[in-house]
Amino acid sequence: MIRFLEISNQTLFYYYLASNLAYLAMLIIALKTSAAHQRQLQSVSLTWIKQSPLAPPITILAPAHNEEKSICVAVRNLLDLDYPELEVIVINDGSTDKTLEVVRREFGLRLVRAVYIPQVASAPVRGLYRSDSDTRLIVVDKEPGGSKADAVNAGLNAATSPYVCIVDTDSVLERDALLRIMVPLLNDPKRVVCVGGIVRVLNGAEIEGGRIRRVRLPRKSIEVIQVVEYLRAFLIGREAWARGNMLMIISGAFGVFRTDLVRAIGGYRSCSIGEDFDLVARLHRHLLEKDEDYYIQFVPDPVCWTEVPSDLRSLGRQRARWQKGLLDVLWTNKDMLFRPRYGRIGASLLVVVRTYGTRDRARRDSNHCAGGVGWRAESGTHGRIPALWICLRDCNLDWLRTARRTDLQTLQRLARCGPARDLLLS
Prior knowledge:
Layout: H1 2-42, H2 46-51, E1 58-64, H3 71-79, E2 86-93, H4 99-107, E3 109-112, E4 114-115, E5 125-131, E6 137-142, H5 148-158, E7 163-167, E8 172-173, H6 177-181, H7 183-187, E9 192-201, E10 206-208, E11 211-214, H8 221-243, E12 254-258, H9 259-264, H10 275-289, E13 295-306, H11 312-332, H12 343-355, E14 376-381, E15 385-391, E16 424-425
Parallel strand pairs: 1-2, 1-7, 2-6, 9-13
Antiparallel strand pairs: 3-5, 4-16, 5-6, 7-12, 8-13, 9-12, 10-11, 14-15
């Protein structure tokens, strides 16, 4: 018995020694990374990005389920974000309350006959709505899918921008959050494929009109502990992992992804429990198998505020779900562990157990494309389509601004789909 206790003590001692040395190393790396990021910001003008017509468009995907009391404030805050080219897609995930009716009345929604291409799997979509008061707002009404992942997939099918930002409707973004999180993507658009921002605790803060008026610590000790935990996880853990391009998770509350890559891997897995962790792991796998030179980055200053559990029971349910999601992702990607093909990612998957707590461009055909974009219109093709038929050939129109102001969604994918009449939503 004494021998067993001695072995246990030694094991625990070396375990905690290794853990603290690892955290110390990550702290040093995070400090250096944060200092380098601050120096980089001095050479970047956020005002220029805000006013530039060359800023790449972003589509914000905001799933909503039974959010009738707060949905209007949340949508208005998203529309008020500082960014020049913005599209907001709210996904009504089979709400049983008056979420859709409240948004329709507040923003003057009208049902549109639009092209909807189900490139990634999701529950059936009932209809698409566009706001008359602000044409940047689109609402996707769908059958309940049972998960946030399924709702995001439906919004991903309707997105028209080269980048998507996935947020929660109960979270609060700072007004310049999109400008700040896009800095790495603008600096290196070829390598940076997705960027995560920091998530901070909203509990205790003073809110006015859906905006943070004053940041204060919460009163409950269980919430204060989570404040420290979030700061440690984001400012030390994720910043250090991103430095080595081994970041395995971008928070589902705030992250920007390249739209074409998320579609290429099939979007979110609707059955996944930790959908944010699962998506990043599959992105790593996809890019490594294609031998792509890529970078998944974390930016410490664009802030998203979210509420955390305020009682032990809610906290326990949240952490149990996180651990189940962790095990699900590890089991699904077990073949990546210690495989030379996956490099450092295969090793970092094991470390995540503790810390979790391709570029193909459109070819330009001279017969159908002028300056990279082109189409031809025909009426009554073989009598199958009585209206206008748009034929696109090998053209990526993600950047086509005018397409975002019409009822036709995601024109760039029409060439790979079936008859247009099968894609129209009545």
